[in-house]
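JOB MANIFEST
job_type = single_chain_structure
chain_count = 1
residues = 651
[input]
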Amino acid sequence: MNENEFSLDVYRSLSELERREYLLRAYYDESDPAKAFLQKIIDGSGEIEKITLIRSLKRIHEKRSIQYLIALLSSDNDRVFEETCEALKNNQYEAKGKEILPYLEKSKGKMLIFIIRMLGEWGERSAIVPLVLLLPSADYKVKIDIIKSLHFLRDVRCVPAIRPFCDDPDETLRYLSLVTLGDLFELDPTLQAGSFVRHCHDASPRLRKVALWIVGKAASKRFFKLLVHFATKDEDHHVREEAVRQLGRLKTRKIITPLVTVLSYDTHDNVRLQADLVLSKISHHYLAKGLHRLLHHSDEKIRSRVISRLGNLHYTGHQYPLYLEKLLRDENTPMDLKAAAIEAMGAIGTPRLAGFLEEQVVAMTRLSYYALASLTRIWDRNEVDFPLRLLKIEGINPLLQQIILRHFLRKTESRFLNQDVIDVLKSKIHDKNMNIRYLVVQILAKVNIDVIFQDLVTSLTSEEHPTVKEAIIFSLRKGLNGQPGPVIRMLRQLECDNPALDVLCLFLRNTVWLPKTYLEICQALLDVIQRCPQEKRNQYFLALFSFVQNRSISLDDIISLCTDDDQKRQLLQFFDQIVPLQRLQYSVNALEGGLEDTDPVVVNVTIHLLGFSQNQQALHHLLKFALGQKKDPVFQKAVTALQRLVWEARP
């Protein structure tokens, strides 16, 4: 390839795609003219030419492409610089860090900052010493990036250079230095936790937090008081949370008291959650022993927290259940402590405590709610008698009712829901409290549907809350399990003016039934249509139509159920109105006889339905009928129906 083939003039005469190909040819040529051509672009002032070169080189992952890209980094053009940075970041050449390292000392400005950042991100360990040497003389922004890169590289050789910056007047430099040293703490034995204690008193909360993190790495009991101070007294919740976390590293029972104090008094959820997490990691035996000692603490809030915690541990040592009972019987015990004691009884779950808790519930005091909630944890899963007695109490608190109902819902098996329980539940199905109605309906789903079907339908008729309505419909569907027997029996019993009839009709339309039952459902609906006034029939016809629409039953089957000509005529007239709107396919077998009917209304409707049937079997019947007609209007209708069928059949 001779020199004339690589010239800027030739390059500039090409299209964009051809230019890229030209540049790649020059790159892979490696001859002196090709190298000179590429260098001219790098040294030139053309922004577009440089960007095209960068985009051509960015997918070449080898040493030479990196060298060209590094040469382009020195460009003063911001766009060229950004494109070059992006290309270098995404290049997969493994040794690109070594290629860029020599430019560290001779670069400045944004190029220097980029090189420093990349050396850290690419993990170029040979850059540690040059970065450390550059650190003291660098300006502020460069120092920040050097420390960040040294943090990425995680090498103890940088410790002496970074250590002085922990006391720098600038907060950001102090913070970055502490974070870097914290990550190197386990790797460098010269780093002592004690030397970071002074940083725990820094004015900046984020520095205090990092310093506590480093001090906690020592897991030394001599920092216990320091950590307790910051866990309970610091004004910043992030610092308190970190101090609590580091307390968890100390292998001593002493941490239990400050952790319980934090749980009792700290105002921030994250701090309390951290304290709870640390407590949960302590050995069950040591935690129970340490908490038991706090039962006689002078602070009521701490005692309350301890009582609840011991209950959650199912602690029964040192006659703890007896202690709880005495606490509840003592008239001088504060209400919060009594509530905690009742919750602990429920968590421990000792059956002998159930009688005492039942006394508390029946007393109908402020503690009844806690006592009943605890009882539901102690009761046998099929406990019925006492909950039922409570439900029968006139004017019982709705919250107590809900606790009992949740017990029935979650634990009680259906065979233990006797008639007495069912009767009480039925009485609650129209309760003014929506939550009670919702729970009752869900419980009744466990009962035989024949026993509660009419009650559920009646409640569905009057129910206004959408969530409860959905629960009733779910319970009905679950109980019926595709068998419409109870629905059909109720349809036959109801008068036409009963609103439950409309509800049942809608329920029939929106429920999937067993295939073999649809004929029986349609027969029941036709019976309803027969005895209802004309103005109410359309909704029942719609229910029938929905079954045809869903392919559950054919139009032929429904027509065959009609007991007289009047019923058949009404059915066909309704379908005649709605079928053209739905574009529904159906069989024509049952319609065939309608063409020979003596009633002109039936004949006209049949012609119309056959025309919209989208069924080519109708062609034969309509053609035969049209040829035998002498009456012009009927003939015209037959021809129109035939035209529609032929049009629908076109390819």
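[summary]
The mean pLDDT is 84.
The domain at 580-651 is CATH 1.25.10.10 (Leucine-rich Repeat Variant).
exit_status = 0
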